[in-house]
Amino acid sequence: MNMRVGRNSRAKALPAVAGITMVLMGIALLRIYGGARASGHLPAPPPADAPFTAAAKGSLTYSNDIRPLIEKHCASCHRPGQVAPFSLLTTQDVIKRAKQIADITTARTMPPWKADSHGEFLDENRLTTQERGIIRQWADEGAKLGASAPTITVKADADGWSLGKPDLILSPSKTYTLGAEGRDEFHTFVLPTNLKEDVNLEAVEVRPGNQRVVHHTILYVDTDGRAHKRAEAAGSDNYGAENGAGVPSGVVDIWTPGKQTRRLPAGIGMSVPKGSDLVLEIHYHRSGKPEPDLTKAALYFSKKPIQKHLRVFGLPVRQLWIPAGEPAYRTSGRFKVPDNVTLYSIFPHMHLLGKSMSVTISDTDGSHATLIDVPSWDFNWQNTYLFKNPVHMAPGQTIDMTAVYDNSTNNPHNPSSPPKTVGWGEQTTDEMGLVFFGYTVDRENIPAGIVVPDAGSVIRRGGR
Ligand code: HEC
Hints:
CATH architecture of the largest domain: Sandwich
Bound molecules: heme C
Number of helices: 7
């Protein structure tokens, strides 16, 4: 799933990255103890893409070669009412933009899948080298139509929820109307659960009320009512969240365009204690006219007792102090895993100066495997990547993260001109270097009374 944090990052993303940075406050260091040494098996490296083999000259057509690619990789966003600025459903939509489409796919800007991955993530949306080459060749040879082809149809968004009837649907008390003009807006809505007993969630589906303006949402659990107090002070059930929702508890969902709802693997759940509120933070992008929105969240409770809680762990860079003008400031973070754990998801996070990030794991014998590589970081498209095969790690193995930043004038997203020295902070003009993991602790067995304590310490931030 993709996280867009502003359409034009230089002009509009400045009012702080709100949500994501607040994740920090609530996410604590992995604090797990003991566990026998097990020999780990690192995941095998992904197969490399085959190089491009050109098709016979003049043989490529829209109907045969291009339409299937647009249908599979672009139509989910490029259709009426969705996030992309124009539709690519009709033949003419695509043919008239052939060169632009070839340029943007060659540059790997679209589809907006930033990880250099080859099938190791679920719901991966990327073009292969061969597919990019085909689009380029077709456009360069005059974007031929071939046999006439029907307009692409996309299964319309079902009115129903994708996993059937939810156990609880939450939404703000009334429709919120976003004003026509101004910067992007971060807004927070408090959604009381009124739960009389603790529950675990096996799935969450957030359904934006208005996809033209909802760019991403973050759903938190608030166990101590602080968001409620803040809203109450504002005389409402919602408040502006320029600097974050202010909820230090867990994140249960991040929605971004194109996200597919999935259940957690059997036996794993996300905890929502009785009496807690869910807090929905929405990043709105304005459309130029007033836009009503009523976003809803559907919760699916675990019906059977769960064995393990899904937890989130954030690994920060050790140091972060990026000199003005520095084109490739490199820093890193490392974590030695103290217990047998299983990683389900990975979410790299930097701000506007981010250039690339990679995360590897190493075994005690020195062997390495890459967990994720984001070769050209794009603040506008952040993503929770779900591992197709969960990654098992054993005590003593390490997670290493390397982040590179461009604080020169050559970085078109640099928020300061001339560049300023930048350190760690919440504002979009500050920087961060973090990677979040969704994980379980293998020895946790809640029905048997083996409950791993929740981590309590707050992430160390990278300093000078
Ligand atoms: C996840 C949603 C999504 C998918 C999938 C997607 N796009 Fe886009 N596309 C966007 C958005 C949103 C924009 C507007 C630019 C922005 O905000 O980054 C855009 C912009 C574009 C542009 C205009 C870029 C510019 O410079 O103005 C082109 C061309 C384009 N997309 C082509 C494609 C093609 C071709 C595919 C499939 C191979 C594709 N897109 C897949 C969301 C998507």
